[in-house]
Design goal:
With 53 residues, the protein is mostly beta strands. It is 8% helix and 25% strand. Strands 1-2-3 form a 3-stranded antiparallel sheet.
């Protein structure tokens, strides 16, 4: 099992005062999932969806 750390990023189109989500697509090839989090609460919970979705 890999211990790769998520590399979070926002869309370049996200310029609406902070109401954004961040994704960590770097985990898709190794884990098959894409974590998503609220950019205003980076230490809060994440939603993990299958990369195929």
């Amino acid at each position: 099992m890999t211990t790769e750390t998520p590399r979070w990023h926002k869309s370049s189109y996200s310029d609406n005062g902070g109401a954004c989500v961040e994704v960590a697509t770097n985990l898709a090839p190794t884990h098959g999932t894409v974590p998503i989090r609220d950019s205003k609460n980076p230490t809060g919970p994440t939603l993990t969806i299958p990369a195929t979705a």
